[in-house]
Amino acid sequence: MKLILTIAWRNILRHKGKSLVIGVILFTGAFLMTVGNGVISGMAAGVEENIINGFMGDIVLISEAQKSDNILLNMMGSSIEPINSYKKIKEVLAAQPYVRHFLPVGKNLAMVLDENTDTPGFAYLIGVDFAEYRKMFPDNFTVIEGSYPARGERALLFPDFARNEFYSFYNIWFLPEGGKVVKENLSKDALAAIATLPVSSSAVMMGMSSGINTTSDIRFPIRGIVRYKALNKIFGHFCLVDIESYRECLGYFTAADMAAQVPKEEKALLGLEGSDLDSLFGGDSMLVSGYKKAPRQIKAEKIAARNPEDGTYNAVFIKLNPGTAYKDALARLNRGLSEAGTGVKAVPWNKASGPMGSMALIIKSALFLFVTLLFCVAVIIIVNTLTMSALERASEIGMMRAVGAHKTFIAGMFLGETAILASVFGGGGILAGILAVRLIPLFRITTDNDMLQILYGGNFFNPLLSFSGVLLTVFQLLVVTIIAALYPMKVAGNITPLDAISRD
Amino acid sequence: MNIIEIKDLKKDYPLGDTIVPALRGIDLAVAEGDFMSIIGPSGSGKTTLLNVIGCIDFATAGSVKVGDREITALSDRQITDIRLNKIGFIFQTFNLIPVLDVIENIEFPLLLMKKSAAEARKRADKLIEEVGLKEYAAHRPAELSGGQRQRVAIARALVTNPDIVLADEPTANLDSVTGASILELMRRMNEIEKTTFIFSTHDANVLKYARRIVKIKDGLIEKEPALA
């Protein structure tokens, strides 16, 4: 081994030009691979942190009647199917040991209306129990103006990103009730017009559904202005609203409706306590998939006294326990939901998040493909250079074979040369890559582009390299080295002593 | 006792659609410890004969025994082992490993035999002294003259104590004085190490060093000429 490495090392020094070419390729490849792995890891971590932990969980339950699994950024007009079997769903979820947390939500598109213009704006509404939402996503946004609503309070949390857009659109600056204009939070245009800035502490919204037109226009009191911790330009289109107001806005069954229609005593008499109310009203023309005929106007009273879980939802966000086998959990969950006749299905977060999840996957795949292509090119160049080197050294190699060197010795010599080059230059590339991955976050590189934000995994470009990521890079380099050396090794091993003599 | 026994050795080379016979039925026996020269004009088959004996090339037909072993039907690994353990080579163009210095070139075959570094160096030191290049031990081949390189090649060929040393035109690239000194050295090593030497040449001046001369022409051995 010492002899092989000695000859290999001295051959590298003897053929400095070729060694440098291979070395530069290995350095560049290893560097880009390390940074690429860092970007992929950073994006994966960012997407996981921001979408899974910060917005919709690992798994999302949607109605079986829902045509598209994408419920996050769905096209305008295509509403999310209602779910009226939450009590059953809750029982199923509570029985799953791998489920850490779950949150039922309403989610649909609403028109934002203004008395002064004919053209409506649009915003996504997420109807939640504010207290439960905070438990599920404790720090995914900051209330920058106003306050977080109390349990059971009817209120709207308006995102600052949407506020800026609506100011441009309507020339109205939304404020929380009782709030004042905060200069630091004004957009450029609003700041320029601060002296005459028209403000409003409520927003009129009308739910949009592709079903029966039973939606209502509701004036929501704005409780707070929020800024999402990450991906604010994407999540900043989502307004949080209390679930009962949301239901009224969309024309869904509210908890109040359910309580009014089927008193507890009657439910007990009918033996329907905890059962699906759809079965009770299955043949009633008044009920169509969770929509009720007559629209309701928002009431100012608190809803804490009622159980908000009695009404209609559109989805359930689920977080899994760390370390859960994802596919297995998804399959088990779907089995459980189906057996219980809940009428919902479990879909993975990346499908439910639509373009975001797909884009994350596409970017991840593209980066992986880029790194793979880079390696293929590196392998081809190294193979060519080493093969040429083997042929140029046929005389020397043939002589070694003549004096008794086996094919394995010659092959080992070439592998040794490639391994030394890979260790020195590839190792250098990996170290430089690690350094770059460590340094990049310090520059706080940000972007206005939504897609790039997904690539960044958040508002800032934050590549991340774990120890296992470094090991992966070393492994990839090892694979490249072996693949790149295989053919030249074969060529060199097949050089015979006669070849050496013939060349003389 | 014969160290080499060759019977009806034939070697053909394909050249396009035609077959060129290089050896057309050689019968030859070489005694242990001999110092033999194969002579003949260019293209007569000298190098081919040496290559087949040295397991560098393969016979088309016939039998070649090195020691008591038939070498015409061995695998690459077995053939390589014979080259390593039984045969030493001296090439016309010296053929040293350019990245190794003189002493490392000499001990190279011993390290291939998995001898310990100390043992290999001890034997290489002895040989380098015998070929008179001790002061050049740390020099690379490129820093040596042609004669010095050929001395290194002789030392390397002998370092494993082979049964046979084959030298193909060892003086062809050397001036007459250096060539004579190389042949003197080979002869001396033959006497010291008791190794069989077979060398090819078409230089008449070389013949005076040989104890036996085999003349080859058109792939066949002619009657052995008388020694000078």
Question: What do these coordinates show?
Answer:
- The complex is a heterodimer of chains A (504) and B (228).
- Chain A has 504 residues and is α+β, with helices and mostly antiparallel strands.
- Chain A contains 19 helices and twelve strands.
- A six-stranded mixed β-barrel of chain A has the order 2-3-10-5-9-8, surrounded by four helices. In chain A, strands 6-7 form a two-stranded parallel ribbon.
- In chain A, strand 2 and strand 3 form a beta hairpin.
- Chain A is elongated.
- The model of chain A is unreliable at 270-305 (pLDDT under 50).
- In chain B, 32% of the residues lie in helices and 28% in strands.
- The longest helix of chain B has 18 residues, at 176-193.
- The radius of gyration of chain B is 17 Å and the shape is globular.
- In chain B, the strands form two sheets. In chain B, strands 6-7-8-3-9-10 form a six-stranded mixed beta sheet, with helices on both faces. In chain B, strands 2-1-4-5 form a four-stranded antiparallel beta sheet, covered by helices on one side.
- Chain B is α/β, with parallel strands linked by helices.
- Chain B contains six helices and ten strands.
- In chain B, strand 1 (2-15) and strand 2 form a beta hairpin.
- Chain B has helices at 46-53, 76-85, 102-112, 117-130, 146-158, 176-193; strands spanning 2-15, 18-31, 35-39, 61-66, 69-70, 87-90, 164-168, 196-201, 212-217, 220-221.
- The interface between A and B is medium-sized, with 26 and 34 residues.
